[in-house]
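User: Hi! Is it possible to get a structure for several chains at once, not just one? Here's what I have:
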Amino acid sequence: MNEPKFVYVTYIATTPQKLWQALTEGAFTRQYWFGQSIESDWALGSRVVFRSGSEVHDYGEVLECEPCRRLSYSWHVEYHEVFRREKPSRVTSELEPMGNEVKLTVTHEQFEPGSRVRDAVSNGWPLILASLKSLLETGRASLLTSPDKLRGARERAIAVAEGVA
Amino acid sequence: MSEPTFVPKTIYIIYIASTPEKVWAALTSSEFTTRYFFGRSVEIEGKVGGRFAMRMPDGRFDIKGRVVEWDPPRRLQMTWAVDFEEFRELPESLVTYEIETLGKSVKLTMTESHQWDVPDAILAGGRQGWPLILSSLKSVLEIGQPISIDVPMGPPKEMIDAIRQAVATRPWRAAGLGR
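Assistant: Yes, the chains can be modeled jointly so their relative placement is included. Here is the combined structure:
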């Protein structure tokens, strides 16, 4: 049996267009996602990469792309062996406009039994999505997800994963 | 029969660019809660065992409980009974807020715990409400404005149906509860 999916919902005072840009363009993700750029042409089957400077970390493949509404890609976490040995999981972002806000639902699923990736992303998503909300509403992302925090966040994730392995 | 114990069923974590004192004030003072908690004003006695209630905009209460932990500005826990129609039959739940300082931000963790095997259809109410309430709390503290969407105030129909069914069969008696 697969591990339970991870679901996080938040509401952001923005437009679906701006939120879509923030989810799909590296110039935006760098600001709220520990300095990482997401890169893809977002055609079905195209490669998705997460990059910090010249270093490519994680990668995946576009599974669904309905601009301003729904984006789904597979995700293989590369930065440490404890995560790299798991098969890719799947991330889906759904955007629903509601008045002056957008409801954003991020579902991360298809984890292996006993997945360490699931623990890591369950800690990461609330932080990243809170930072995204702050960026779109205030123009400033959270300091907790600035580029200099990436190493520490990964070291903690690895320590947790190895602690329970 | 052993004492019923509360088991966490819904957890929502949100990070807010604020101070623990401001987040505590936002959780415990009605001038804040009316802005982000579906218009409800909190009434809370600041001590363990103190009374806790949420008053709706029309003046009626729909949630009542008592304070279990009062540790400003770090930890607040209260029993949580929905004082509304069929909901009155349900055993009370427990809501815990934990506030942690991380640099210039605060991590707020809300945990909703139950004493019996609550069906997902009933948990769905909280799982829909908490993200909206706490996203709105974050906006109030960061930009001075709540999330303003018009959402149906009432619980989803599936939730009401599940509550009616639970009230008819009282599955919580298996956990040694009666109310």
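Chain B touches chain A through 23 residues (CB under 8 Å). The helical segments of chain B are 20-28, 30-36, 120-143, 157-169.

User: Great, thank you!
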